[in-house]
Structures are given as C-alpha cells and as structure tokens.
Amino acid sequence: MTLRSYLFVPGDRPERFAKALASAAHQVVIDLEDAVAPDAKIAAREQLSQWLRSSLSGVDRRRVMVRVNASGTPWHADDVAMLHDSPVRDVMVPKSECPEQLGDIASRLGADAALVALVETVAGVVRMREVAKAQAVARLAFGSFDYCVDAGVEGMDRELDAVRSAFVIESRYAGLPAPVDGVTLAIDDAALIAEDVALGRRFGFGAKLCIHPKQVDAVNRGYAPSDADRAWAERVLARLAENPKGAFAVDGKLVDKPVIDRAKRIAADTSIQGVSV
Fold first, then answer.
1. Are strands 248-250 and 207-210 parallel, antiparallel or unpaired?
2. Domains located in the chain, CATH noted
3. Any known ligand binding at 158?
C-alpha cells in the first residue's frame, strides 16, 4: 500500500484513537512525545498499552504506529519496552541522528520492527546517510519545524531547499520510499495545505505528516498521481507495447528508459482519489 498521510493523535487522548482510525489517514501515529506533557507521559503509556492489547483490531494494526520519546529522555526505554510487549512494531523515532540508537531500538523490538526515522536536528541531517541505512529504518521523515529551531533558520520556504533535497537523495540512495514531509500548522487553510503538498511533491517527497484529520484528504489527493498522470502513463505503456525495442515519442516528446520507469511506477500505484487499496 502506498502510504501518503501520517496523522498524529495525542497519546494521552485514547478517546481519539478510534476517530483517527476512522479517517482516511494511511498511518495513525499515536504520539507519546511532543503531544504529551511530561507529568502525563507515564499514564499515557499505560493507557496506550492497554488499548493496543485490548482494543486494536487486527485489521487496523498495520495502520498504527507509535512515536516514542527520544533516546536519552527518562521515558524512552519504557516506551520501547511497552511496544515490545504489544502487537505494534511500527515506531516513529524522534530526534533520529544516531544509527546506533536506531539499531538498539530495532534489536529490542525484534525482527519485525519497522522504524520511521524522524530527522529534525542539524546532527540528524549531517548523519542522514547513516540514519537511512540503520537497522530496520523503513522511511525518513522531516521534522521541519524542530529542525528550523535547532538550525536557527527563520523561514520555511527556499531556506529549506537544500535540506529537502538531501532527504530525497539519501532516501533514494538507501533504497527507501520517498520521504515524508513535515507538518503544516494551518488546519483550515486548504489553499496553504495544497501549496505545501505541491511543494513537497515537486522536491520528491511522497507523503506528509498531518496534525488534524481535516488535512488528510488534501494530502492523500496531492501525493497521488493525477488523472492526467495516469492517462499519460497509459499512453506511454501502450506505445511501449507496440514498440518494445524501438524508440518512440508520446505527446511529441521522446520516451527513454527513465520515462518508461516513471510511467510504470504511476501505473503500479493502486491509489485512486487519495485512497490506497
């Protein structure tokens, strides 16, 4: 399944877990880190543990991941230990900047662990190639706001061009799916969300972190191939079937192997109108 939307839900609000799963989000990220105050973290972990073991259906299990507290915090080890005893092995790791720490988490969770490395510091960007190849890392995600704070960057537009390109390059080099872009803080500004999704897609991102269910549909639609994309891919592959070994053009443009590969990727994408099947 093509994963395009990662919806955060606070880990201390169990009444919202089912509502998040009822949305069109491809992944629901139950957040034990930033969304939970320090004095509520232990209770949130205990409530989440109970919910994962007693209320999470097998159908929904593959759609749930947990953002644990960062390595070095007082809650990190217990978060990972709780997940080891739960049915969920998909984990978002904040402040990912050390491949050894990621490997330690993977080892403690077992062979079926899958980690989304949330890179949100200068150190993480500098070591992103090592992070991307760390044990059990399945995808990179950009913690854009935290990165800007850490780096002293005051803008979210062209100021981040080099970092965005690094995410795409390192994901591709490591053989990972296209990376996950950072959040848009505006909840009700549909135009801004669509603009941010279009920007991420142009850079080569394949998904986006969401902070509210209202953002999910725009993200799913924006990262899915458009009807025009699909029609173009069909034309390319039809001409390829007619000329499997010869050169040919589509829409007045020469088609070579990279173009054919792109057409095949679009044709293989099973999502329709923002819903993956």
1. unpaired
2. 5-223 (3.20.20.60), 227-268 (no CATH)
3. no
